[in-house]
Inverse folding.
């Protein structure tokens, strides 16, 4: 079988690349190891930056999102027993965050790619192997779930969009890429509660016991985070202990109590980042978490995945339209600028979240000073808002 582009992975990155290619009339195949039902319900991200929503809209990919996503205009920091609302829409003269659960975005994108634009997508593809990326005829082999047989796809380009644990990254020759890693040495217990949000905006609790966060996802489901030891056992966190810690770490004068509910997800995330440089070699182009992981501290991962996907989709479409390969040549450099910018902000924000916990009184003092500055210096507030909402510059 021959096609122009094989896309490995049907996450936000792969499906967006596929939809952009279909709109440009470019032949492609998406290979996904899970089932459609699984990827349409896997809970994860929720925050989409406004520039990314506009970019999806320009490509006809945001109809549902624009009807159903919530628009957020503020977040609230709680520290030293007080609550401080940060109205980023006011600070930036009208910019917002959109809250739209990742499974809904994936559902919209699968429908658009496969059902509306007639894209070829193969679910349950096992043992995907990417080969011959340094020639002009790469191949992607996989095992078909129905027949158990190996299939080989011949193509011009491979888009490696298979996330942090994918297979395509392994096809990059180790001598030609550098993987930069950072480990925060911190764990987060990531929770989903079947309960309405406890506040109409994102809450950040900076507490000597550790960070706690609340992120509205929908009227029925709310995400919470609790800082914990890396590698901690989620089963040790019984519901009573979870809620006791959430109440304690998010407590502030005048704050309404949290709305409790059954915990439908409980996982420990070890906070770490990596960046693969360059993000491309030969005919293989990585996009999204396959190329860079950013700990969910600043809710940036899916936004970076979308940014890569727009650039890669457009660059491949330009190639097949005879528009040259300049965009493919600069793809990695163009993506990495935003990647490093968001990594830096996540590190900065990690210190804000975690600096008051533990026994280091000096670090706690400087962290509280950093927090207070957001509410006393308009310049500091503007800088924070710009990075929190994501660089608005044309991607
Ligand atoms: P995905 O979404 O992981 O999709 C990759 C797809 O590839 C498939 N796959 C394979 N297919 C074939 N062969 C293989 N060998 C394969 N291996 C994997 C997978 O099944 C999957 O369908 O990567 P993509 O597209 O790069 O998207 C990245 C985002 O999913 C990720 O960055 C975000 O979820 C990160 N993130 C957040 N990002 C935000 O922008 N805002 C947020 O609010 C936010 N919250 C979060 C998050 C990530 C979290 N976790 C679980 C780490 C909250 C959490 C808890």
């Amino acid at each position: 079988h021959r096609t122009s582009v094989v896309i490995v992975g049907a996450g936000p990155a792969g499906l967006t690349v596929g939809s952009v290619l279909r709109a440009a009339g470019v032949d492609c195949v998406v290979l996904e190891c899970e089932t459609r039902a699984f990827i349409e319900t896997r809970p994860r991200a929720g925050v989409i930056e406004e520039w990314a929503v506009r970019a999806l809209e320009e490509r006809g990919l945001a109809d549902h999102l624009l009807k159903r996503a919530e628009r957020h205009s503020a977040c609230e920091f709680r520290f030293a027993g007080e609550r401080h609302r940060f109205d980023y829409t006011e600070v930036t003269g009208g910019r917002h965050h959109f809250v739209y659960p990742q499974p809904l975005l994936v559902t919209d994108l699968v429908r658009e790619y496969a059902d509306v634009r007639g894209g070829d997508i193969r679910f349950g593809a096992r043992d995907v192997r990417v080969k011959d990326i340094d020639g002009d005829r790469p191949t992607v082999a996989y095992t078909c779930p129905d027949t158990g047989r190996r299939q080989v796809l011949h193509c011009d380009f491979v888009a490696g969009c298979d996330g942090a644990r994918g297979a395509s990254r392994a096809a990059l020759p180790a001598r030609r890429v550098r993987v930069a890693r950072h480990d925060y040495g911190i764990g987060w217990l990531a929770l989903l509660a079947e309960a309405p949000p406890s506040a109409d905006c994102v809450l950040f609790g900076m507490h000597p016991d550790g960070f706690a966060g609340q992120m509205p996802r929908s009227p029925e489901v709310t995400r919470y985070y609790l800082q914990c030891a890396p590698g901690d056992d989620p089963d040790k966190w019984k519901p009573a202990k979870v809620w006791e810690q959430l109440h304690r770490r998010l407590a502030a004068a005048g704050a309404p109590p949290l709305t409790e509910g059954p915990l439908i997800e409980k996982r420990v995330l070890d906070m770490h980042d990596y960046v693969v440089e360059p993000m491309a070699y030969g005919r293989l182009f990585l996009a999204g978490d396959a190329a860079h992981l950013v700990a969910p501290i600043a809710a940036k991962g899916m936004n970076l995945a979308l940014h890569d996907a727009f650039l890669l989709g457009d660059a491949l479409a330009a190639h097949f339209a005879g528009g040259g390969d300049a965009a493919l040549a600069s793809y990695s450099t163009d993506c990495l600028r935003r990647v490093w910018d968001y990594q830096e902000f996540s590190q900065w924000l990690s210190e804000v979240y975690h600096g008051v916990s533990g026994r280091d009184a000096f670090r706690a003092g400087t962290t509280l000073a950093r927090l207070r500055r957001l509410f006393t210096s308009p310049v500091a507030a503007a800088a924070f808002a710009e990075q929190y909402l994501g660089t608005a510059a044309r991607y």
User: Anything to note?
Assistant: The pocket of RFL is lined by residues 8-14, 31-34, 39, 44-47, 102, 125, 128, 161-163, 165-167, 190, 269, 288-289, 296, 299-303, 305 (CB under 6 Å).
